[in-house]
Amino acid sequence: MQTKSMNPITVLTKQPASAVRSSALRASKNTKPRPGSSSRLALGRRYQQVTKAVADGSDDTASKAIAAAVPVIGLAGSAALINAHVIDEPVLSYLNTVGVPVINALNPPEFVIHWFHALNMGVVLFAMGGYGTYLGWRIRAGYGDEDTFGTPDSAAELHWKLMAGMGFFFLLGGQGGLIFTLLEDRTLFASPHAITATAGLGVLAAQGVLGATMKDSETLRTTHAYLGSTLMALFVAHAALGLKLGLSF
């Protein structure tokens, strides 16, 4: 009695279509036949890559749920920290010692005091963060080796540099925003803009740790990808709050 064999194409198509497409694309881009191997062996290896990627992608729903929940948790933690007022005095002392004397010595015009932080952070968000997010999705699609605009780095090499640079400039720029707040005689941490800023920096740090430690885990890579996009949405909301604050003051 003959055993009925299953067509691998039939097995593969039982998986969700989106998982098959994305996983197949990554496998086809990242798998190269060894020199001298036959086309049948190369196809077999590629098929194994595809089916493994499809199986690993079964946790996509959980990864997306985590990516959506982390910013919400960050916002809740940030609000609790700011509303407890435990950082008000240390931050105020630090700014009055380090930042405020320097800006007062430079004596910038009122327009700079009011809008420089917003303009500077807007450029960082959309130039570095926007392009870095685009490169992250290109890497996920299997194009990590492609050239990047205006640099000798590949997409994989430039992605983490841009996102790390964005975090560095956000950290410095956030301090500048607090200094300008004091110079305009406004209260520190008195608006939702401060909550989204603190939450954004915290989630960005967590995203960086995840990116450095995820290695080849498909589940963690999916979480990293979607968390990056939700984080960008959080920063855009933060920018909108800042613009509203600036226009109303």
From TrEMBL:
InterPro entries annotated for this entry?
Answer: DUF4079
For region Disordered, the annotated ranges are 18-40
Transmembrane spans: 65-87, 115-137, 158-182, 194-213, 225-247
Low complexity bias spans: 18-28
Name of one Pfam family that matches: DUF4079
Key words of the record: Membrane, Transmembrane, Transmembrane helix
Could you tell me which PANTHER family the record lists for this protein? EXPRESSED PROTEIN
Protein name in UniProt:
Uncharacterized protein
The scientific name of the source species is Cymbomonas tetramitiformis
